[in-house]
Amino acid sequence: MELLKKTISEKGKVLPGDVLKVDSFLNHQIDVSLLHEMGKTVYDNFSDCKVDKILTVEASGIAFACLTAQFFCCPVLFAKKSKTSNLSADVYTAEVQSYTHGVKNTIMVSKNYLSSGERVLVVDDFLARGEAANGMIELVEKAGAKLVGVVAAIEKVYQGGGDALRKKGVNVFSLAMIDSLENGKITFCR
Ligand code: 5GP
After folding, report:
1. What class has domain 2-78+112-188?
2. Hey, which of 35, 62, 158, 166 would disulfide with 67, CB 3.0 to 4.6 Å?
């Protein structure tokens, strides 16, 4: 998506550890009109697919997931990383290694909100090694729901997570595909 690539080029910053900082528009301060256009692009790509629910993980995927969900007219469910007192005891869980924090998190969703047969689109801000996406896919499978596809705003293609999912037959769609962050320079695949 050209507008997203332009915004990444202008506002993105490369941090040590292969981290692209996009918190001025995507996952801290939110550029709502950009995310609206991103959501529309996702909808156009999946418009022939029935989507009952969008699944993301807190916190950085939530804004993009919500602005995408408005086009599908479906709810957003976000997996939580800690058990809070208002989360029901009955949860599906998966273990996820956090890319940016380097720790292992148990992500969880209430069994009340993910049901057998539901058609689920997994949405996140980044796809790097695929840990977060695989964790969410595990939640979908544990619920007996059906995975429609995996969407990332930004895929760091060279880290392999997206291609591993594609090899398994998952429909992966990324709005901006990054080939390299070497020497602090952001290079897109196309
Ligand atoms: P993965 O699990 O695919 O290795 O990494 C995806 C998750 O890690 C996303 O949920 C995202 O929050 C975080 N992440 C991975 N790479 C980056 C990055 O370059 N920048 C930021 N801001 N987050 C990232």
Report:
1. alpha beta
2. 35
